[in-house]
Specification:
130 residues, 2 helices, 15% helix
Length: 130
């Protein structure tokens, strides 16, 4: 059964981070998509996705089909899962991401600690086009 990832920040297709380039090279882009009931905040050079808001609150991202389990483990490491002491900055869970025609169950990285002072909401819900 294929695994999917919803990338909303530094892992997006046109992001300039080396892990975004690794993901684009090793996974298949399925579609642009969105999730609801969430808000995106800018923290320094990267975003934080939090589970707050209603159905009108959307976050835009890229849906990738992952070709191998090893890539997911590399992404976990990039997101800091299991690094240092718990709670970790991010946690990985499955959510429903939506495209024009369907809902796809995707892995997503939620921000897992309190937002720092000065975190600014990205009103557009789109990290690459705030």
């Amino acid at each position: 059964m294929p695994q999917y990832l919803f990338a909303y920040g530094t892992l997006r297709l046109n992001a300039q981070h080396k892990m975004a380039k690794r993901l684009a090279a090793a996974a298949q882009l399925v579609s642009l998509g969105y999730i609801t009931g969430s808000k995106l905040y800018k923290i320094d050079w990267y975003p934080a996705l939090v589970q707050e808001g209603g159905d009108d609150d959307i976050v835009v991202g890229d849906i990738f089909q992952l070709e191998d389990e090893q890539l997911l483990l590399e992404l976990d490491e990039y997101e800091g899962l299991g690094v240092g002491e718990a709670p970790y900055e991010y946690r990985r869970e499955k959510v429903k991401a939506f495209t024009d025609g369907e809902a796809i169950e995707c892995w997503i990285y939620w921000y897992n600690v309190a937002l720092p002072a000065g975190a600014q909401q990205i009103e557009s819900g789109d990290f690459l086009n705030p």
